[in-house]
Design goal:
The protein is mostly helical. Helices cover 48% and strands 0% of the residues.
Length: 101
């Protein structure tokens, strides 16, 4: 199980994993537009996301970034300790040199 500090490294917090999408009805649209939204493409370039994919031995894709942000996918499961990293016989496997880990 990951600690709160580990989740912060990948740009997530415990509340975001448990919270349901908020209803936008009745909110001021100007306030909604002011919030900056990070796309999955930008998130996939983060160093923390790249490290998560390397530890899971999975390909770095925008789809994997989307899944990690939603609390799903191979990289998330490996970080949470629910799954072992991929091996060469599994689809989506990519070999990485583990220099700093």
């Amino acid at each position: 199980m990951m600690r709160k500090e580990d989740l912060k490294l990948i740009g997530m917090d415990v509340k975001s994993l448990r919270s349901k999408p908020q209803n936008m009805k009745g909110k001021n649209m100007e306030d909604v537009k002011k919030k900056t939204v990070e796309t999955n493409r930008k998130y996939s370039l983060r160093e923390s996301f790249l490290l998560a994919c390397k530890s899971a031995q999975t390909k770095v894709t925008i789809r994997q970034a989307s899944k990690l942000r939603r609390g799903k996918g191979i990289a998330f499961k490996v970080l949470m300790g629910k799954m072992k990293p991929l091996t060469s016989s599994m689809p989506g496997y990519q070999y990485y040199e583990m220099e700093g880990l």
